[in-house]
């Protein structure tokens, strides 16, 4: 009989303990997990930015002419050069962004055939280009534009003014500098990478200058519809 007492007592204690645990279950508090809130991706936000650009360029004019007599001279060779510029703008967070830019552009050796015995005239151009621009950025990844950045493409257009200084060189030597102010416009397209605070892109810009004129030259000249092709690298810094 004594041999049965211990097992019966143990079994009885186990039954009551299980009932008590079921009636009042133990709860565990994990404050680290309870208070954790996952970060929220707010998406693209509007921001101001500064920008800087550098480019190589190639220029070609439709024709050169004598502004007084109307005589036309054929452009026979294009000119090569470079430019550098700065700007400031605002991106809306929807893909649209706007900025104003100022570039200083140099281009040499665009050549016109002038049959006056002094040989062809080659142009030296120094121009300050001020443009107001609008762009549309679009994501090249599967998720489109995101706050996490990544690869993107863009297209854009701009309009403004060109402050030109130019002179021509013939067989005798360089002529006098002359200046004029002209309408200017641009179309842009390219690709870039968004690092967050810094955005870098590489693109093409077609820069149009309506007229390059020099009344101090002998003879005076005007070059109509100059198109300057640029390969342009830009870095933007967001605030």
TrEMBL record:
Signal sequence, start to end: 1-22
Keywords linked to the UniProt accession: Signal
The protein's name in its UniProt record: Opacity protein
Annotated source species: Pelagibacterium luteolum
């Amino acid at each position: 009989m004594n041999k049965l007492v211990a097992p019966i007592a143990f079994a009885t204690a186990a039954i009551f303990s299980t009932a008590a645990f079921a009636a009042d279950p133990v709860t565990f508090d994990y404050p680290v997990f309870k208070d954790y809130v996952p970060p929220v991706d707010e998406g693209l936000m509007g921001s101001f930015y500064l920008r800087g650009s550098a480019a190589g360029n190639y220029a070609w004019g439709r024709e050169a002419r004598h502004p007084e007599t109307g005589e036309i001279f054929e452009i026979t060779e294009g000119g090569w050069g470079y430019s550098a510029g700065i700007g400031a703008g605002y991106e809306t967070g929807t893909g649209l962004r706007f900025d104003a830019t100022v570039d200083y552009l140099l281009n040499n050796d665009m050549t016109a055939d002038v049959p006056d015995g002094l040989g062809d005239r080659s142009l030296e151009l120094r121009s300050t280009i001020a443009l107001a621009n609008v762009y549309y950025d679009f994501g090249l990844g599967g998720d489109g534009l995101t706050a996490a950045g990544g690869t993107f493409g863009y297209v854009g257009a701009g309009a403004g003014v060109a402050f030109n200084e130019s002179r021509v060189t013939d067989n005798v030597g360089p002529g006098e500098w002359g200046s004029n102010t002209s309408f200017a416009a641009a179309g842009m397209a390219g690709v870039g990478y968004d690092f967050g605070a810094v955005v870098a892109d590489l693109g093409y810009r077609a820069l149009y200058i309506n007229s390059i004129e020099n009344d101090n030259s002998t003879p005076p000249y005007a070059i109509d519809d100059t198109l300057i092709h640029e390969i342009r690298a830009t870095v933007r810094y967001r605030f």
